Amino acid sequence: MNSKVMSIVIVGGGLVGLTAAASLRRIGHEVTVLEQAPEIRAVGAGISLWPNALREFDRFGIGAEVAAMGREVDAWFFDPAGRAQRPAGYDDSAFRFLFVPRPRLSTVLADAVGRTRITLGARVTGYTETDDKVVAHLDNGASVHADLLIGADGVYSRVRAQLLPDSEARPHVGNFAWRAVVPAGDERPEGTVLTLGPERIRGGYSRITETETMWFISQFGTGTLTGGKRDRALERARHLAEGGWHEDLLRMIAATPEQSILENQIMVVPALPRWTSRRVALIGDAAHGLSPHIAAGGTLGIEDVGVLRNALETTPNLRNALISYEQLRMLRFERVRTLADEVENADGPAESARRYAAFSHWMLTTAPTV
């Protein structure tokens, strides 16, 4: 067992970076988080967390608090005529997750880390690695010395850019998403309505608090985009509202101010030849940023934290611990990418629902338990 207390610098104060900091601090390491933004802030309104992520929160004492702030979602798939699509052969756990408000989760995680251990406005430009230390360099000329540097700085990771040149995030061609948070109305409050429509369009909504609902639309193979953001979202949502089905979704989008709509070209990180070096490790989207259509990117990033923590706890040598982490996670993500591609390329609503259930069932039944 590795009993050495290490100094660890984590680049990135998002969901996975803060989770890593809180988890590694809990086992005694000296942790510093470097976040380039002027405050801890969440991207997006809510996040889906599966049980494999919640177990990691339990390990450092915030599981109950996170569970209390979230809403359990029993997700249902529908076709554009409103016919339910839930494939046989899977129990309800393959469709149930916790939907958590991102801003509240970020606050809880930052408190678990300790605010004094988070440096805001800290833009990392690169690092220097030697046999006995790693030094993070900041754009203001300052530097931070550590035993281990963890790159949790997302799909546009500067840490990954230095570790693996030519590994920049790439557009998932034709894959766009639209979303916004609106006041809750008379839509179904009990769970997510995700409709799988023609032209590879999907969309729906989920209640994120008692008073707020988030709607979302996505499409693979969008082609040329015309009009404003709301018009683009509405044009695609109409394909999901055949015969009056989903009028509530159309109403939400039509009532959303243009400036409140987020429109994103989906960016992905290519499969990497390695995730680590002697004293550097990538986690979360910095290592494996994927299309959000599998709704499990955050959960899988939190899984990274648990595997890395276990490797550091049980392997005496740092390099061997990082190699163990890298091998386990890269092997798992080979399968994640295969299953994600199968969901993306499914033919029709029934096949999409079946392939998604196959993915979530696999993810849950094969998740690390340490």
Write up what this structure looks like:
The protein has 370 residues and is of the alpha/beta class. The chain has two domains: 7-72 and 99-169 and 269-365, FAD/NAD(P)-binding domain, CATH 3.50.50; 172-267, D-Amino Acid Oxidase, Chain A, domain 2 (2-Layer Sandwich), CATH 3.30.9. 35% of the residues lie in helices and 26% in strands. It has eleven helices and 18 strands. The chain has helices at residues 15-26, 51-59, 63-69, 102-113, 158-163, 229-237, 247-254, 285-288, 297-314, 318-344, 349-365, and strands at residues 7-11, 30-35, 46-49, 71-74, 76-78, 84-85, 96-101, 118-120, 124-129, 134-138, 143-146, 148-151, 170-183, 193-196, 201-207, 212-219, 262-268, 280-282. The protein has a seven-stranded mixed β-sheet. A hairpin with a 4-residue loop joins strand 14 (193-196) and strand 15. Helix 1 packs parallel to helix 9 (297-314), helix 6 (229-237) packs antiparallel against helix 7 and helix 9 packs antiparallel against helix 10. The model has no long low-confidence stretch (mean pLDDT 93).
General shape: globular
Query: Strand-and-helix sequence, N→C?
Result: EHEEHHEEEEHEEEEEHEEEEHHEEHHHH
Counted by DSSP, the helix tally is: 11
Structural class, from helix and strand content? alpha/beta
Superfamily at the CATH H level of the largest domain? FAD/NAD(P)-binding domain
Q: Quote the average pLDDT.
A: 93
- The total domain count is 2
Task: Report the CATH architecture of the largest domain.
Answer: 3-Layer(bba) Sandwich
Terminal CA distance reads: 14 Å
Q: What topology, given as strand order, has the largest sheet? A: 6-5-14-15-16-13-17
